[in-house]
## 1
Amino acid sequence: MGAMTLRKLDPEVLETLRRRARAEGRSLNALICEILTREAREEERRQRMRGQRPAAETLRKRIRRRHGEGTPSEKLIREDRRR
C-alpha cells in the first residue's frame, strides 16, 4: 500500500469528510481511500469509453450508409402522442 500527504485541503471539505466518516462509522482514512479508488476506477472506465468512441462512430456510419438516417425520435414521439 502506498501513502500520501494532502496539503492545502479546504478546511470545509475536510470537515465534511470527517462528518461523513463519523456518520458511516468509518475512519477518515478509509473513506478517503474508498473515494480515491472509486474515482480512479471511474477514470479508467472513461478512458476505455473514449477509446471505443471511434469504433462506435465507424459502426454508426456503416449502419447509416446501409439503412439510411432513420426517423428522428422527435417525429416518432409526436406521432405516438397523436394516437
## 2
Amino acid sequence: MRYRAWFRCFHGCPGEYSVYEVIYRCPRCGGLLEVAHDVDALKDRSAAAWMRIMEDRAGTTQWPYGSGVWRYKEWVLPDINDDNIVSMFEGNTNLFQAHRLGEHIGVPDLWVKLSGNSHTGSFKDLGMTVLVSAVQQMRAMGKPIRAVAAASTGDTSAALAAYAAAAGIPAIVFLPQGKVSLDQLIQPIANGAIVLALDTDFDGCMRVVQEITRDETIYLANSMNSLRIEGQKTVSIEIVQQFDWAVPDWIILPVGNLGNISALGKGLLLLKELGIINKLPRLVAAQTERANPFYLSYRRGFREKVTVQAKPTLASAIQIGHPVSYEKAKAIIKLFDGVVEQASEDELANAAALADRTGMYTCPHTGVALAVLIKLVQQGVIHRSDRVVVVSTAHGLKFTQFKVRYHENTLEEVMARYANPPVYLPPDIAVVQETILRRLDQVEKMFAMSEPAMAS
C-alpha cells in the first residue's frame, strides 16, 4: 500500500502515532491530534485521474466504494482492510436546489446539503463509519477494546449505537438527562446500546466520558477523536464533486463542539493540495445565542477561548458551552476568511418553518444556519450573485415535538410567523367548502412569499 495516514499533534509537536493506537491527545502537550496523509504519495495520480476514480465509484455497488465516505478511501483511511469496514453506504446525500427559498431570501443560487438523509438521520454517520471501522481493525489486530463510548446530545449516540451494533461491538452512550428529543433517545436504545442519562448537560457528559475512556478497553468515539473528522470531511469533498468539482462561494453550517467545521475545512484543503480545486470557499459557523462560545470568541478576535454555561435551546444538538475542537475550528475560520454569526430562538424556528414551506423538513440546527444566512444577506456580507451551500445536519423527523409546538405556536420566545395548524370541522359540506376557499386564498398568498423572510 503506497498511501498511508497517521496521527500527529495538531499544534506541531514531533511524533507520529498509528491510527490504530488507542490515543486521543498529544503525549507531549496534551493538545488534540489530527490525521495526516502522505500528500506527496497521493500526487502520484493527477488531479484529473483522481476525479475520474471518484466519479466512477459514485453509486457503485462495489464494496466499499458505494459509500459516500469510502468512495474516498485513499483520502480517509487508505490502509484499512476492506473486510473490517463497517458501512451503511452513508453519504451520497442530496444537494437540494433551494431555488424558491433562495429567491425569497435574496440568493437564488442556494443549495442545501441534506446530510440528515443518512442511515441514522444525521451527518454523524460520516464520522462514525470511519471510527467504528478503525475499532474493528484494532480488535482484529488483538487490541483489547471491549466497547466504544461517547457523550452525545442525540445524533452522535444514534450513529455510534447503529454502527457498533452492525459491527457487533458494545456501545455506551452518555446523554444529558431530559435534554434530547424522544426520537433521538430511542435510537440508541433500539440498537442495544448501554444508555446512561446523566443529570448534567453535554459538557458534563463529556467530562465523564473522557474519564471513563482512560480505561483503554473502552474506546472514545467523540469528535475529539480525529478519526471522526476523517469521515466528516467527506461532506465538503462530496459537495464539490456534486458541482462537477466547482467550489461554491459560501458554505454555512451549524456548530456546537466544532468538529464539523474543522472537518469541512480539512476536506477542502486536501482537494486544493491535490490540485483538484484552485480556490477555497468562505465558511460560516452558525451558533444559537443560547450556546454561543465560538461566536463570542470570534467577536473578540479569537484572543482567547470563551466558554459559557450553555442554556436550553431548540437547537439542542449544539447546546455546548465548552467546545472541544476550538483550536481546530479557529484555525479553519481564519484560513477560510470565515464568519461566525448567531441566531435567536425566534429566528431559528421561523427560518426552519420558512424552509419547510418550500418543500424541506428542516431540523432546528439547520434553522440556525438558515437564520444566519438571512442575517448575512441582510447585512450585505453575502451577495445575490453568490453560490451558497447550507449544510443540513439532521433530518427533521428527529424533532417532531419542535415542529408540533411551532405550529401550535407554543414555543417560548418564538412568534410563529408561518404556523399552519390543522382546521377542525364538522362533516358539513357547506362549511368545508367555505373553509377551503378561505384557506386557499391564505395559502396562495403564502406561496407568493411576499413577506420578508425575517422580521428585522
## 3
Amino acid sequence: MKKIRDIMRYGFLFTVQRATTVADAVRAMAAHNVGIVSVLEGDKLVGVFSERDVVRRVVDRGLDPARTPVGDVMTTELVVADADEDYQSAMHKMDQANTRHLLVVSEGRILSMISIRDLMRVHMDDQGEEIRYLREYLYQVPPDITRSRG
C-alpha cells in the first residue's frame, strides 16, 4: 500500500507568518493557485489559513482584510498525517475531519500539504491496476512484462 511519502510529489507547501494580513495571504494564495497556506510563528507551525476561513471568519464577520492578521482568523485545529502513513488512512482522516487538505509531517517537521484530489488520483491509479490484474487473471492474459507495477 502506498505511503504518503510516496505521493508527496503531488503536494505543495506555502507558508505565511502569523502577522501577515489576510489581504497579503489571499494574494499569495492566488499567486500560487492554492486554497490554503500553513501559518507559522517564526518557524513553528501554529495553524492554517484557507479560503473557507476567508469566507467564514473574515467576510462574514465584516473584518477588514488589509488590517486583520491571519493569526486572528486561522484554523488552529490541525489535521496532520505522518509521511509513513498509508494513503487510505489519510483519506479516512480527512473524511472524518471534513477537510480537503492534510499537512504531512515527519519527526515534527512540516514536509508538505496534500489535497483530497491528490489522494483520489492515487486511489484511482491503484484501482485501475487492480482491475488490470483481475482481467489478466480471469482471462488468462499473459501480463505485459514491459508494464511497471510500481
## 4
Amino acid sequence: MPTPDRLLVPLTLLITLTLTSCSAPDPADPAPSTATAAEDPAGGSAEPPLGDGHGAIDGAAEVAEPQLHLITLDPAGSVELLDLADETRTTLGEVPGTTATSTDGRYLFASSAEGTLTVIDSGVWTWDHEDHFHYYRAEPRIVGTVEGDGEAVVTPGDSGTGVFFPDSGEGMILDKDALGKGEISTVTQVSTDPHTGMFVPLPGSLQLLTGAGPDGTGDTVQAYDADGRAVPDASAECVDAQGTITTRVGTVIGCDDGALLATVSNGDVEFERIAYPAGIAVDRATGFSARKGRPTVAAVAGDQGLWLLDTRQREWQFLATEQPLRRVTAVDDREGHVVALTDAGTVLVLSSGTGETIGETEPLLEETIADPTLLDGVELVTDQQRSYLNAPAEQQLYEIDFADDARIARTFPTDDAPVFFTETGR
C-alpha cells in the first residue's frame, strides 16, 4: 500500500457545485456581510428559492444576520434552544441516554452508548460563500435516529455527515439535503473491521475511512468514492488516528507523529503529512477545536499546554501553560486569540503570538469539577465575537468576551443541568 507524504489520485467527481457570480477570493478574516433578500413583514426576508447555490432550503427564510442559538440537553435528555438575540427558549423534546454530542453548526448529533444516534435540527445555520455569508432560519425539530452498535463517532463535513460505529466497523455518510427536509438517508455506506476510528466526509463525493490496525486503532486512512468503493492507491499511513476537523484549507486527521491533511482539487485527493516539530517532548494532539472554518486549529497537549496547527502554513506551534488545560479552541482572528478552559475551571485568553495570558475569569466550574461524571459534557465553543461554556452542576451557561480580557458578558441560568451543549447558527 503506497504511503508517500504526498499522493495525487485522479477521480471524477459525481457532484459539481456551481458557484454564482458573487464568489471572490478568500480574505484573511472575512467579516459577516448580508446577502440581498426581500424583506418580509416580520423583519426577516422572503423564503429563498430551492437550490439557488447559497445554502437555501425549501421552507427556510434568509435573514439579515446570524441566528445564533445555544442548544442544551439536561440529564433526562430534554432538548432546549436558547436564542442569543432575544434570550427566548424553545423546548424541542427529549433524547434520553445521550453520552456524546457533536455539531456541524446547524444539527446536533446526540449519540448513546446503546448505538442510537439522534439528529436534532436547530433550524438555524450560516452558508459560507468564502468572501461573505448567508444566514437562514427554519423550524427546529428532532429529525430522527440512526441505529448501530455502540456509541457512534460523528464527523460533520460540508458535503454530509460521517457516522462510524467502532463496535461493528460500519460507516455511513448522512445525506445533508435529506436532513434539511426532515428525513434521514445515507449517500454512502462502508464496512470494515471493528476499531477505534472515523469516517470523514470530504468535499464533493469523497470520504476518508480509517483502517483497523493490529491494536484496534486506526493505522491508515483510505479514500472512498460515493458508492463506498476504495479509490485505488488513495491511502496514507496514520498510526493511532485520533481527532479530526475541517478547515478552509482541508481536512485534518491526527496521527501519532503529527497530522495528515487531506485536500480535494479537480478530482484529486492529496495527502500531506505535517510532522510535529523536532525537540518538543510533549503529548500529541488527539482532538481539535477552532472557530468554524478557520485555517488554524488548537488541541490540548497533555498537561503541558496546547498545540496550534496552521493548515495554511503546514506547521505546528506549541504554547506552554502554567495550568493544565481541559479544553482549548483557536479563534484565529487578527489578534490571534486562543481560548482555553483549565482543569481548575477558569477560562484563559491567550495570545497565539507570545503565549501570554491576556485575560482570565474567576473559577466557573467549582461544583462541576467536584462531580467528575459531568466533566465529559463540558464544552468551550467560540464564534467570531464570543466564547460559550456550560457549567452543568452550577446550572449556568456563560458568554465570554474573549477580546475584552475574558469578561463575562452574560450568564444564562438553566432549569436543570446542561450536561451537553453547543452553539448553532454559525
